[in-house]
Amino acid sequence: MTVEKRTPLPISEAVERVMEHTKPPEKEWVSVEEAYGRYLAEDLIADHDVPSFDRSPYDGFAIIAGDTSEASRENPVTLEVIGEIGAGDVFEGHVTHNQAVRIMTGAKIPDDCNAVIMLELVHEFMENGKPYIEVKRSLQEGDNISFQGEDTQKGTPLVQKGTCINPGVNALLATFGYNQVPVAKKPVVGVVATGSELLDVSEPLSPGKIRNSNSYMMLAQIKKAGAEAKYLGKLQDDFEECLQAVRDALDEVDILITTGGVSVGDFDYVPAILESLDATVLFNKVAMRPGSVTTVAAVGDKLIYGLSGNPSACYVGFEVFTRPVIRHSLSSQTPHLRKTKAVLGSDFPKPNPFTRFVRASIIDTDGQYTAVPTGLDKSGSVTSLSQADVFIVLPGGTRGYEKGMSVDVLFLEDHKGSEWPWSNIVPSYR
Ligand SMILES: Nc1nc2c(c(=O)[nH]1)N[C@H]1C(S)=C(S)[C@@H](COP(=O)(O)OP(=O)(O)OC[C@H]3O[C@@H](n4cnc5c(N)ncnc54)[C@H](O)[C@@H]3O)O[C@H]1N2
Ligand code: MOO
Ligand SMILES: [Mg+2]
């Protein structure tokens, strides 16, 4: 029996191929209470000025600034207080010279007034049953006024579609009257685990068996990417059973992920399943480690990801190839992992022909990032994932890397994303 020979594709080319198979985003409406964490499906543009009227930023008195032009400690001016307004009220009367209106924070400035003086800065007194204030300083027109449109003006684009709705975006949605919010429909992503060695989480360990951890890892990755996760169970390494399960799964999901059985072993059935489904294999080998066996295929308008059974390889395969497809269908303009530079925290003396993704934790020292590998750097390692907040990217080549070098890192816990992180990833030898 000869083992199938696979040609490794450069990462950027492999990502390009999957991105060519993305579908246009679909829109749905959710209530503003449900919008947090969803992705905006339309640009949010201010349809009125904010604030929409001149208002007082203080509890104080609305006055005519010119009345105070001669005011000083020695020469205070006296103004008659002719009314009071709280936030939400509008002063309907007319204010003339040497008059003032008691005004609270957030209330609309009376039309005739053009400045506000804080309560603490005036002396209040009554004379003949009428309230007055004494002002000991001179104010300029516009002093202490929050002007209409000073926060934002009508027509200003505020939030781009594809943005993850954070609490600040929620505030804007409410400000502009979005009781219902247009958000990108979440694609449904199914997970099937294959492997006769797999136990359910609740089962006790027995010789040769391990618990199925990849499914639960990926359900979380899918949700984190913004999609709806559907667990479709774990399967024995049995070709017919797996083929039927994949066929059934395809009816239920937009994207299907299998884990395990994707390499060249006797019980690695994913390649044969893809063949039986007449799927178009986009690639079945990528010049990266872990995750070199990552396979992606298209069946009709759906993508099937054959991710490695090895936990770290599975994790990497998802973040590099599945996450951007999900984010694209959520309208994101920046669907890939965000890239930045960091100082390498350990030596990697052994050269590797494939680009390596090293799970690492980031330390921020006054804005200077250092990336320190977390645990065992092997494809089968599961413990190195829990502490990882970046992948260090070490391009393949003929030389190793030394502690202290500047390297690219990709953030795992970040919503901003990046447009295309795969150009300019170059080995940076000192
Ligand atoms: N002769 C060769 N052997 C292997 C090659 C190769 O090129 N030639 N590639 C190696 C690489 S690289 C990887 S990665 C793995 C890929 O393996 P598979 O995707 O076929 O996955 P399995 O064989 O089913 O399992 C691999 C490993 O992962 C464990 N596993 C599987 N499923 C789960 C799960 N749901 N949760 C946790 N752990 C899981 C499984 O027990 C195995 O230990 O192949 C290499 N071999
Ligand atoms: O796909 Mo493997 O992870 O390169 O070890
Ligand atoms: Mg295998």
Automatic annotation (TrEMBL):
Enzyme kind, highest EC tier: transferase
Gene3D superfamilies in the record: MoaB/Mog-like domain, MoeA, C-terminal, domain IV, Molybdopterin biosynthesis moea protein, domain 2, Molybdopterin biosynthesis moea protein, domain 3
Listed GO biological process terms: Mo-molybdopterin cofactor biosynthetic process
Catalytic activity: adenylyl-molybdopterin + molybdate = Mo-molybdopterin + AMP + H(+)
Claim: Magnesium is one of the keywords in the record: yes
Superkingdom, natural source: Bacteria
Cofactor(s) needed: Mg(2+)
Domain MoaB/Mog span(s) in chain numbering: 190-328
A GO term for molecular function: metal ion binding
Keywords: Magnesium, Metal-binding, Molybdenum, Molybdenum cofactor biosynthesis, Transferase
GO cellular component: cytosol
PANTHER family named in the record: GEPHYRIN, MOLYBDOPTERIN BIOSYNTHESIS PROTEIN
Protein family membership: Belongs to the MoeA family.
Record's protein name: Molybdopterin molybdenumtransferase
Taxonomic lineage from the root: Bacteria, Bacillati, Bacillota, Bacilli, Bacillales
